[in-house]
Amino acid sequence: DSNLTVRELAERLNIAETEIIKSLFSKGIAVNITQTLDLETARLVTEELGVLIEVPEVIAAATKQTEMLDAKDLEHLQRRPPVVTIMGHVDHGKTTLLDSIRKTKVAQGEAGGITQHIGAYHVDVEHNGVSQQIVFLDTPGHEAFTAMRARGARVTDMAILVVAADDGVQPQTREAFSHAKAAGVPVVVAINKIDKPDANPDRIKQELSELGLVPEEWGGETIMVPVSALKGENLDTLLEMLLLVSEVEELVANPNRLGKGTVIEANLDRARGPVATLLVQNGTLRVGDAIVAGGVFGKIRAMIDDRGQKVEAASPSFAVEILGLNNVPSAGDEFEVYPTEKEARLIAEKTAETQRNSRLQLAMSSRRVTLTTLS
Ligand code: GDP
Ligand code: MG
């Protein structure tokens, strides 16, 4: 139950009560102003308006997903694609899996098929008869999580835990899972290398169960998909499972505001100057925007996607490479768009000063420790 009356829903959506009554009437549902709407009925109205309904569980899910949402976003929430990281023990097939997913998808759908390394990839997946997107981060999973923990930012919605079927649970498998668990990020397991003669998926499931990851077919809650990253086997099922989990997570953001999110990677390019890949986590990022990323700022001169194409706008969950910053930000820095370049410059200068001060303090405190140790 949404626990909202027609009147309350109208207030929240900032529309006339009669609009709601008319909208439902056109669908064959008669309601009055004081009537409480169930969730499904309320959704009929909000979906038509292109917004997700404001119900406690959606808000709870949304605020769990990201601290990037403000109160004013709650009335404009729309679904966004999941952002996925691939984690697992060394040599279990993380790089091969990502390459393989990218290749099959690019080969299927894209003319030219040239990918550009920007640190994130978008793939289109057919799910429930509609084409949906998934965004993969190319940073090694554990690094993404370490950066996230250090800065308190949540950049990934889901993790694929890759476990080689001929090797089983290893130290980094445990570590990866504990990171994901601590961050509250759901895990889908890819049991990889099933093409190998000594692959033993049942043994892997047993070992994972001992960690607390019990497969669905054994009465647990973890989706486990046997795959061969090398041969491209069963990757479609894996992608579909990711979308299934993302549906349950109710991933949302407000595209109708200025963009904000997290710096995924950044470097100084000889020809192009500072280059940064930004993951948009709320709002829409546009060419020409005045932006602050950590202690640097600029006006976005150009945006390039993972196919090397110039784009004008990037909506929530999308990653783009941007040009136009005055300096190189750090991976993990937050970015935000401001109404004017002047504001952006002021905020960036303030942030840079705070960063300098905390570095100075750190340097001084370590010096003090050294002095006391000596005396
Ligand atoms: P990472 O360290 O987790 O990124 O692992 P890599 O993707 O670099 O893979 C390590 C090795 O395992 C490479 O030699 C891959 O070719 C091989 N490999 C990865 N996936 C598979 C697979 O599905 N089957 C087989 N037979 N080998 C695989
Ligand atoms: Mg690798």
Structure classification: alpha+beta
Shape: globular
Question: Biggest sheet, open or closed, and with what strands and sense?
Answer: 6 strands, mixed
Mean pLDDT: 84
Q: What level of helicity do the residues show?
A: 25-40%
Number of helices: 10
For the CA atoms, what is the radius of gyration? 23 Å
List the helices and strands and how they pair.
Layout: E1 4-5, H1 6-13, H2 17-25, E2 36-37, H3 39-48, H4 56-65, E3 78-79, E4 83-88, H5 94-109, E5 120-127, E6 130-137, H6 141-151, E7 158-164, H7 171-183, E8 187-192, H8 201-211, E9 224-226, H9 235-249, E10 252-253, E11 260-269, E12 273-282, E13 285-286, E14 290-293, E15 296-304, E16 310-311, E17 313-314, E18 319-325, E19 334-338, H10 341-374
Parallel strand pairs: 4-6, 4-7, 7-8, 8-9
Antiparallel strand pairs: 1-2, 3-10, 5-6, 11-12, 11-19, 12-18, 13-17, 14-15, 14-19, 15-16, 15-18
Helix pairs in contact: 1-2, 6-7
Bound molecules: guanosine-5'-diphosphate (GDP) and magnesium ion.
Q: Mind explaining what this structure looks like?
A:
The chain has helices at about 5-15, 15-25, 40-50, 55-65, 95-110, 140-150, 170-185, 200-210, 235-250, 340-375, and strands at about 5, 35, 80, 85-90, 120-125, 130-135, 160-165, 185-190, 225, 250-255, 260-270, 275-280, 285, 290-295, 295-305, 310, 315, 320-325, 335-340. The strands form five sheets. It has a six-stranded mixed sheet with strand order 5-6-4-7-8-9, with helices on both faces. Strands 11-12-18-15-14-19 form a six-stranded antiparallel barrel. A hairpin with a 3-residue loop joins β11 (about 260-270) and β12 (about 275-280). The protein is built from ten helices and 19 strands. The structure holds guanosine-5'-diphosphate and magnesium ion (MG). Guanosine-5'-diphosphate binds near residues 90, 95 and 192.
